[in-house]
Amino acid sequence: MEKMSETKIPGLSIAVIEGNEIIYSRGFGFRDLNSGAPATPSTIYGIGSITKSFTALAIMQLAEEGKLDLRDPVDKYVPLKLRPLGKPATIHNLLTHSSGIPALAYAEAFIRGLLEEGETWLPIATPEDIIAFMRGAEEWAVAKPGERFFYLNEGYVLLGYIISKVSGIRYVEYVKKRILRPLGMKRSYFDKDEVERDPDVATPYIIDKEGKHIPSRFPYGITSDGGLLSNALDLAKYVIMYLDRGKLNGTEIVSAKSIELMEKPYIKVPFELFGGEAYGYGLIVYPNFLGHKLIGHSGSVWVYTAFMGYIPERKIGVTVLANSSGYPLSYIGMYALANMLGKSPEELPFIRMEGLLKKLEGTYESYKGTMRLIVERQGDFLFIKRKSKYIEESIPLVFEKAEDDTVLFYTLSGGRKICAEFRVKNGKIELLYERYKLMKR
Questions:
Q1: What integer pLDDT is reported at residue 347 of this predicted model?
Q2: 225 with 153: CB under 8 angstroms?
Q3: Same domain, 395 and 275
Q4: pTM score, two decimals?
Q5: What is d(CA 82, CA 79) in angstroms, rounded to the nearest whole number?
Q6: How many CA atoms lie within 13 A of 78 on its CB side?
Q7: pLDDT digits over 338-369, tens only?
Q8: In the structure, how many helices (H) and strands (E) does the chain have?
Q9: Which one of 88, 243, 352, 377 has the largest count of C-beta atoms within 10 Å of its C-beta?
């Protein structure tokens, strides 16, 4: 609740899994602010890029059936030349975001345009539109396939196209028939008419720069890269299937071998939290999560956010969904998993950092109050703020390291690196900045 309050999240739903059971589920806050309707464990939200794992799972099913090979070049199935720096991109490359093509930002432009937030208007209604949009994209490449990770939504749209072409039915129908229905995910949808018939759907919200909640809408048109809407309980069934190595209640969705291939770390990702994070097939692998391997994925379509994560060896998992952007739901999910492991959440690096920044916030004064600075936290940064009748400064501080009772930050001024050193002494905090020593009041 604290993080929801801090970042203005209207509603949130969570489910916690152990073994083959949901051991805890709850909704917090509001699914709709206007009516005051509360969020429940069954409330529907968009799950964004968690959809990519469903797409990857469908690809694995088709590979098992011999209808495609993960080593096949993309242009075997898609009428698009995709040979970055002369090397053919394969299905494997699309699954792992290793095509060598940086993000083309179609989803960003599409969502912002649809929600009337951005200046760009990109009318993408079908995978064929994406194929047309991507013509010439191989010239945008900066690496050969397999060399570097670049998160590419467009690649997962192409995978959805491949699924449709190989299976003979629309991607949406394939996922419903081969994944959602067998798993009993009866309230997980792609289509607007199905969502509108459901009585427990969260209103999506934009949180504006003043912190106001603006009712919005889901960006229908996105499919295989982020178009699924679901709920914490349905998504928990999906996680249980992974924990049971491809099965749920005796129904096999895919083989254990395919699940293991999906969870294999293929390419290092540039965003590390615990160290060693890598991308599998539609899943992110955290090999060093408090001594365990965590598998998970986040999702966001701006007005909805979500996270699912699980630890195979301990057979535990979590699903978290919300009807706005705000505090990272991955952090909430990881906090829950840490508790289930019997670990202190204070061991989580983001919890330590949040606590540290909060501790350093405040008003600092120089000798006998001759000068006053305010230190405020904004996201992952501290800012030194100084106000007077004529001048207002806001100087960002970037964290560098923490040692014993000393925490070092830095900023830049005139091309020079300026250090800001916080020191804790006898329960008090002092700041050494430029030529000044200041004490926290």
A1: 93
A2: yes
A3: no
A4: 0.93
A5: 9
A6: 31
A7: 999 999 999 999 999 999 999 999 999 999 99
A8: 12, 23
A9: 243
Q: Is 114 helix (H, G, I), strand (E, B) or coil?
A: helix
* CA gap 65, 170 in Å, rounded: 18
CA dist., res. 3 & res. 264, Å (int): 32
CB 246 within 8 A of CB 259: yes
The owner of tokens 């300026």 is 418
The predicted-structure confidence for 282-306, as pLDDT tens digits, reads as follows 999 999 999 999 999 999 999 999 9
Quick one: DSSP state of residue 264? Answer: S
Max intra-chain CA distance, the chain: 78
Per-residue DSSP letter, 9: -
d(CA 322, CA 205): 10
At 132, the amino acid letter reads A
pLDDT in tens, 99-156: 999 999 988 888 888 777 767 778 888 999 999 999 999 899 999 999 999 999 999 9
Are 303 and 232 in the same domain?
Answer: yes
Give the CATH number for residue 219. 3.40.710.10
Chain centroid offset of residue 329 CA: 8
Of 283, 312, 347, the one marking the end of a domain is 347
441 Cβ neighbours under 8 A, 6+ residues apart? 362, 363, 364, 365
Q: How many CB atoms lie within 10 A of CB 104?
A: 18
pLDDT at position 282 is 98
Spatial neighbors of 404 by CB under 8 A, at least 6 apart, are: none
Instruction: State the residue for tokens 């501290």.
Output: 382
